[in-house]
Amino acid sequence: MAHHHGLLSPSLPTTPTASHSQIHTSLSSSSTPAMASVALGGAAAATSTRCLLPSARASLSLSRSSPSSLKCLGLGSSPLISHLFLSRKASPMACSSSRGFAAAPKCAASDPEQLKLAKEDIKELLKTKFCHPILVRLGWHDSGTYNKNIEEWPQRGGANGSLRFEIELKHAANAGLVNALKLIQPIKDKYSGVTYADLFQLASASAVEDAGGPKIPMKYGRVDVSAPEQCPEEGRLPDAGPPSPADHLREVFYRMGLNDKEIVALSGAHTLGRSRPERSGWGKPETKYTKEGPGAPGGQSWTAQWLKFDNSYFKDIKEKRDEDLLVLPTDAALFEDPSFKVFAEKYAEDQEAFFKDYAEAHAKLSNLGARFDPPEGIVIDDGAQSVPEKFVAAKYSSGKD
Ligand code: HEM
Questions:
Q1: Which of 23, 143, 175, 210 could form an SS bridge with 279, CB 3.0 to 4.6 Å?
Q2: Where is the composition biased (Basic and acidic residues) (predicted)?
Q3: Could you tell me if 181 and 84 are in contact, meaning their C-beta atoms sit under 8 angstroms apart?
Q4: Which CATH architecture has domain 245-280+298-361?
Q5: How would DSSP label each residue in 86-121?
Q6: pLDDT tens, 287-326?
Q7: CATH pick for 112-230 out of 3.30.70.2190, 1.10.520.10, 1.10.510.10, 3.30.565.60
Q8: 27-72 residue pLDDT tens
Q9: Whose CA is nearest to atom 17 of ligand 1?
């Protein structure tokens, strides 16, 4: 593979098997669906409305203390991490409620209160594991399979939680992402009223925000696919080293309905994280910036402070001055292609412009292919512009200035 630049680390893509050996294939653990229908406080079930929730595990919990919201919660997931049930089938969950109550019953893909609580747990996880980058990659790889030319859900791919299934995690592009799933599975187990599709996107957006990035205008309520047969075929995500990187990026991202500006802005997510030869085949085994972690040490980052979300990615891939920093062929294309270059130059100069475009593009990416219930989605923020906490994670990056 000829690379015009020493920073491209052309270790040939390896077959990513190591991480897959860690997948627990609890194939036999297909859950028995508990089809639940509930009458609130003794209200007549005869007047109930029903809706189907394709949540991963089906059972229903009811809180008498909050009669205004009928909670469609799935409980009873195994607390054992060994039950990653990557291949477990989900069952449609029946949820019924009485029309007789003052407030309209809520029956959505995810429960708003649980979404908020799950967000708090994700923040805790980020504090202890510094797993911001891999959670961003998890969200992107669930949604990035979207094909705008296919109308049917879930055949069209996108943010539908299909990435939890082993068959999709085994796609070469997803090497290593089983580790992200392991990190958030306990949160899924705790809040089974949150769909996988939502949890992946919630984790990603929260990671960007927590790393000092922009607040992303997210909505929730994504419905999960229920079986591995609904996973997209392999090959919808971009390659890092195709023969013609700019053409390849356009082919893949245009298929998702995204444009040049969005391609460049979203590539800026590589301000976070590292590439590992044993996963993707790209990057050095370790550099001065990664040899001490945090998290599992090693890999090659695009930026020195790879837990800090800022515009340094654009500065670094433009300058290509540091042998220890990664520039993939698809990264380099952003300053080589005349149309991409306009945006890449702007973002290298102007972090505010990058943050604004990134936040919009990330929100759009997170919605690709998703089926929302309710159709308008669920907003869990209070609308107030969050004041980002003073960023601390970056100080754990080694080798910084
Ligand atoms: C433009 C096409 C893209 C290509 C070819 C690409 C390729 C890659 C590769 C090869 C890795 C290294 C994976 C590993 O070895 O563990 C990686 C990591 C990463 N990618 Fe991308 N990527 C692209 C776009 C994106 C987008 C759109 C996002 C998010 C919006 C993103 C977010 C990330 C993050 C955060 C990591 C670091 C993961 C970690 O440290 O574990 N990438 N990408």
A1: 175
A2: 275-291
A3: yes
A4: Orthogonal Bundle (1.10)
A5: TTPPP--EEEEEETTSSSPPP--SS-HHHHHHHHHH
A6: 999 999 999 999 999 999 999 999 999 999 999 999 999 9
A7: 1.10.520.10
A8: 333 333 333 322 222 233 322 333 333 343 333 333 333 333 333 3
A9: 275
